[in-house]
Amino acid sequence: MSLEIEKIILRVAEVMIDELKLEDVTPERFEPDVDLVDEVGIDSMDLATVALVLQDEYSIRIDEDDYPKLTTVRRIAEYVEKQLNK
């Protein structure tokens, strides 16, 4: 795993924790492969909130049609990395 993707995973976890007010978890301990819908309980509005923050922070566009693919922190980070390298 590249250093860049590790940084993005950590930042996505931070945004997720902050925006969704998740308690008892730190970005370093947030499992990047946990299913966000089934195991964390986020819904489409939560994901939209996180996507808006990431779009602003990284100056990228996250297409709403791609939201169903963004089911884990790792997948979100990989999507962000791909958008950054376009």
TrEMBL record:
Pathway: Lipid metabolism; fatty acid biosynthesis. Gene3D superfamilies: ACP-like (1.10.1200.10). It comes from the Bacteria. The keyword Transferase does not apply. The modification O-(pantetheine 4'-phosphoryl)serine is found at residue 44. 4'-phosphopantetheine is transferred from CoA to a specific serine of apo-ACP by AcpS. This modification is essential for activity because fatty acids are bound in thioester linkage to the sulfhydryl of the prosthetic group. Keywords: Cytoplasm, Fatty acid biosynthesis, Fatty acid metabolism, Lipid biosynthesis, Lipid metabolism, Phosphopantetheine, Phosphoprotein. GO terms for molecular function: acyl carrier activity. One of its GO terms (cellular component) is cytoplasm. It is found in: Cytoplasm. Residues 1-84 form the Carrier domain. SUPFAM superfamilies: ACP-like. PROSITE patterns: CARRIER. Belongs to the acyl carrier protein (ACP) family. Carrier of the growing fatty acid chain in fatty acid biosynthesis. This is Acyl carrier protein. The gene is acpP.
